[in-house]
């Protein structure tokens, strides 16, 4: 069990929390990064430091806070989201999105002036903003994903363009309209939430760059890969995925699938080459574009999912076996399940190529809250607190420990899973009763430890530690405390825990030289000796752990070497295959070249028997065209050129006669002569155009085989 620290228990006394009362429900009005907490209320955002408050509690400094000066926020804030770097703060409501650049320098006055940008103002007027999320693999930490209710996912690079998105994903516009296998009427579909799969290790596959979007009908849409143009994907993941694609490509016999593997292989190869140069960039494909309009549609295997009402949120966790999906619904239900197939990229797809969708098998359904009205349930997850997800409803916060993820990472335990296995443990953390829970953020920094903070609509803030619950019973609803964490405990007494076993001896008469001083000196020496022995044992344990780590590292190196050898063999075989294909193509082109050379050599000799009837006809047409050009077009063209030179000379040398000398008849004669000459030039120009068209027609009849 954890215990509440005094500085956490007195956080409500912080001056930044005074006057933050708000009587409306909001999605999330609190964010934390590296100890700095951002809290919003209506149109105002305040910033204070938890580490500073921790020092304040023990009397080192005075607590203070700052107010962000933001001239772009003229709306009531519904959601805050800080990026991984802690420099960009996204501020959103249903139809507005603003990004503030948090300055590094902090002035002494209370106001903190930021640079603010309105994002995509023309894209959110007709559809509501459903959810925003910073892309985890942005090289500049500046790519913001925005999902609107109409099923369009925008990716903005706020460091380059704040008006137009870098990429756009149509999630529900181009689904096949045949049949009812996808649940409700597709025309009534509406997106309600989205997420990006979790990245845990290089072997997690495409899940970590796959977007999963939840529809109101209960269906799930996934599209992959969703990567910024300026990305920073882990090199280990690129190498592992590259090798896996090569292996699958070698075992594939379907031509259409081979095309998919080719473009996937090419895309990964470009990323690997860019990563070796230290500047990973996604090169846009010119020949085939990513199929934005053809994502996977994942169908739940149970029709009762749609009876839960609208979906509130979705979270996808990566495991060694398959993606683990966590869903929450407005009816208060939480569902965990697994997807039958791993996500994969689709580079180009037609409607008749769509196959049956992968299935979402529901493993466990938990009723967290019961209410007659829809309850928004927002999911939160922090890699620093593994195997746990946190659910924030409009008035409560719960911690859900999902042991299913632990089972899916172990092949032996995965075989033991059945439909009756209850692998979720629930701990209800906070109940605000009549107030709204308007914010939840998870803290995973080393200085503060794994903890959470919850903000109520009246400005009350709770900070408490979190821990795993594998061996803990469920906490019933009657144990909840208003605006107080239910896992508070007193600090354990460390003095009661024995460091080592103390030796005892039987009583015996002491010799005369044993005095009180010698006994005291002996006791002190024995205590120091015991402490030194304890240190030696600790050092011995560290050495054993170090030796074990070296042994494991050596095994890993052997595995890597063996894998590299196998990969080199596959690459060598592929290179040999490519060389064979290249040789065959070269021989084919050599034959064609020899054929064309023969035709050129005997172009004007019709007695050669090697020519086909089509080739003889083409040569006759070419000879006739050449005679026409030499005897008709060329002389007229020379006359036209000579006459043009004469006219230019006359225009440059001769002065025009005075208007009064020429009579009307003379003027008419000059105009008539010029008109005739112009008509001849026009006819000659038409003949030249006809000659060009005849040449093109003959060229199209050249036999290449």
Query: Largest sheet, described in full?
Result: 8 strands, mixed
Q: Could you tell me how far the N terminus lies from the C terminus, measured between alpha carbons in angstroms? A: 82 Å
- Structural category is alpha+beta
Q: From the structure provided, what is the oligomeric state, counting identical versus distinct chains? A: single chain
| Strand elements, count | 28
Q: Round the mean pLDDT to the nearest integer and report it.
A: 73
What proportion of the residues is helical, as a percent range? 25-40%
Biggest sheet, spatial arrangement of strands: 14-15-16-17-21-20-19-18
From the alpha-carbon coordinates, what is the Rg to the nearest angstrom? 39 Å
State the helix count: 9
Q: Outline the low-pLDDT stretches.
A: 176-184, 284-294, 470-510, 657-662
Strand content: 15-25%
């Amino acid at each position: 069990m954890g215990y509440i620290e005094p500085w956490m228990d007195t956080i409500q006394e912080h001056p930044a929390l005074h006057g933050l009362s708000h009587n409306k429900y909001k999605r999330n009005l609190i964010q934390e990064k590296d100890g700095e907490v951002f809290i919003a209320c209506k149109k105002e955002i305040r910033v204070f430091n938890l580490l500073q408050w921790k020092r304040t509690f023990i009397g080192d400094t005075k607590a203070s806070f700052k107010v962000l000066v933001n001239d772009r926020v003229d709306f009531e804030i519904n959601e805050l989201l800080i990026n991984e770097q802690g420099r960009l703060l996204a501020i959103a409501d249903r139809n507005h999105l603003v990004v503030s650049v948090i300055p590094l320098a902090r002035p002494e006055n209370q106001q903190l002036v930021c640079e603010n940008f309105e994002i995509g103002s023309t894209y959110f007027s007709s559809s509501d903003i459903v959810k925003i999320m910073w892309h985890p693999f942005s090289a500049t930490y500046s790519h913001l994903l925005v999902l609107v209710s109409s099923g369009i996912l925008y990716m903005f690079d706020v460091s380059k363009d704040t008006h137009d998105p870098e990429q756009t994903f149509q999630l529900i516009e181009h689904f096949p309209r045949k049949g009812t296998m996808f649940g409700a009427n597709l025309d009534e579909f509406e997106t309600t939430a989205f997420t990006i799969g979790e990245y845990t290790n290089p072997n997690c596959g495409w899940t970590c760059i796959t977007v999963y979007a939840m529809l109101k009908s209960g269906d799930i849409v996934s599209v992959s890969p969703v990567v910024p143009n300026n990305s920073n994907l882990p090199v280990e993941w690129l190498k592992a995925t590259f090798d896996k694609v090569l292996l699958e490509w070698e075992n594939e016999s379907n031509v259409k699938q081979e095309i998919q593997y080719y473009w996937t292989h090419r895309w990964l190869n470009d990323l690997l080459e860019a990563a070796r140069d230290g500047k990973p960039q996604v090169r846009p494909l010119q020949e085939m574009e990513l199929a934005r309009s053809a994502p996977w549609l994942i169908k739940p295997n149970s029709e009762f999912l749609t009876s839960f009402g609208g979906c509130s949120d979705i979270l996808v966790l990566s495991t060694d076996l398959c993606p683990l999906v966590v869903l929450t619904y407005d009816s208060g239900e939480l569902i965990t399940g697994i997807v039958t197939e791993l996500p994969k990229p689709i580079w180009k797809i037609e409607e008749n190529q769509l196959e049956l969708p992968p299935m979402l098998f529901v493993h466990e359904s938990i009723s967290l809250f019961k209410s007659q009205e829809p309850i928004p349930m927002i999911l939160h997850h922090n890699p620093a607190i593994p195997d746990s997800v946190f659910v924030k409803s409009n008035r409560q916060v719960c911690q859900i420990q999902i042991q299913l993820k632990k089972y899916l990472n172990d092949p032996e335990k995965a075989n033991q899973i059945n439909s009756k296995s209850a692998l979720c443990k629930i701990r209800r953390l906070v109940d605000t009763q009549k107030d709204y829970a308007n914010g939840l953020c998870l803290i995973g920094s080393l200085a503060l430890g794994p903890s959470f903070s919850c903000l109520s609509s009246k400005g009350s803030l709770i900070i408490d530690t979190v821990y795993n619950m594998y061996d803990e019973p469920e906490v019933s609803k009657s144990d909840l405390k208003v605006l107080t964490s239910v896992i508070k405990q007193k600090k354990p007494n460390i003095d009661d825990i024995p460091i080592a076993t103390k030796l005892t001896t039987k009583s015996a008469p002491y010799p005369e030289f044993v005095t009180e001083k010698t006994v005291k000196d002996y006791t002190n020496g024995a205590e120091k000796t015991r402490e030194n022995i304890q240190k030696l044992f600790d050092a011995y344990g560290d050495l054993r752990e170090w030796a074990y780590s070296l042994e494991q590292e050596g095994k890993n190196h052997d595995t890597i070497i063996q894998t590299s050898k196998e990969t080199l063999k596959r690459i060598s075989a592929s290179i040999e295959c490519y060389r064979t294909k290249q040789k065959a193509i070269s021989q084919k082109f050599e034959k064609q070249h020899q054929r064309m050379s023969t035709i050129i050599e005997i172009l004007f000799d019709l007695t050669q028997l090697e020519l086909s009837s089509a080739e003889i006809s083409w040569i006759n047409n070419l000879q006739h065209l050449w005679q026409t050009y030499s005897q008709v077009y060329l002389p007229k063209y020379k006359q036209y050129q000579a006459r043009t030179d004469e006219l230019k000379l006359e225009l440059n040398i001769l002065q025009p006669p005075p208007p009064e000398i020429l009579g009307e008849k003379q003027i008419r004669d000059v105009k008539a002569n010029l008109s005739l000459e112009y008509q001849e030039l026009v006819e000659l120009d038409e003949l030249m155009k006809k000659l060009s068209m005849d040449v093109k027609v003959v060229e199209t009849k050249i036999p290449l085989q």
